[in-house]
Design brief:
Number of helices: 8
Largest sheet: none
Number of strands: 0
Structural class: mainly alpha
């Protein structure tokens, strides 16, 4: 007889597979249950069918939200009314909040995927360069997010990068191969008005 798992583990694994659409291997990493066991549970509890039903339902919900927003806007334009204006405003506010939540979730996933091992000063410099690049990319793709705080954060990171690089011995003045080189970092500081 094999190892028995708590019912909560089975249902959590089902949720990760069916709702979050994770692979058996990823669910196994999270739950500590062997992928072969997960596959048996999948067959026993019809996880593939449930996964498809959930995906279809979520897609329908998204489509219906967009269509509802369009109908509400059309109705408001055809016959302006305070109650319809309030409904349109509420639907648009919800859509903006959902878009922001999706963006934050995507950023969190990207941060999680890019974890690196930092064991030396050179590793720290490379990781900091990558972080600065990511921050600048995020700022440049969303100009509305550029404010004094963001500029100060980038400035502090560039200053720290300079300190770390100054303390790191480099052969023949060679630059490290990853991240920002000094010429680009100086150009960014100048472009951001930090020099």
């Amino acid at each position: 007889m094999g190892w028995e798992h708590e019912p909560e583990t089975v249902w959590r694994a089902q949720e990760l597979y069916c709702v979050d659409c994770l692979s058996f291997e990823r669910v196994a990493d999270i739950t500590g249950v062997a992928a072969s066991t997960l596959k048996r549970w999948s067959e026993k509890y019809d996880w593939r069918e449930k996964r498809e039903q959930i995906a279809r339902a979520e897609a329908e919900i998204r489509v219906n939200k967009v269509l509802s927003r369009a109908k509400a806007i059309e109705a408001l334009l055809a016959r302006p009314r305070a109650d319809m204006a309030f409904a349109v405003q509420a639907l648009e506010s919800l859509a903006m909040k959902e878009a922001e939540a999706a963006r934050k979730q995507q950023e969190a996933g990207q941060r999680q995927e890019t974890r690196v091992s930092i064991t030396t000063r050179a590793d720290a410099i490379a990781a900091l360069k990558t972080a600065i690049e990511n921050k600048l990319n995020a700022l440049l793709t969303a100009p509305s997010a550029v404010d004094l705080k963001a500029v100060r954060e980038v400035s502090a990171c560039l200053d720290l990068l300079d300190e770390l690089q100054a303390a790191l011995p480099q052969a023949d003045g060679a630059e490290t191969k990853s991240g920002l080189d000094e010429k680009l970092a100086a150009g960014l500081r100048k472009a951001l008005g930090l020099e």
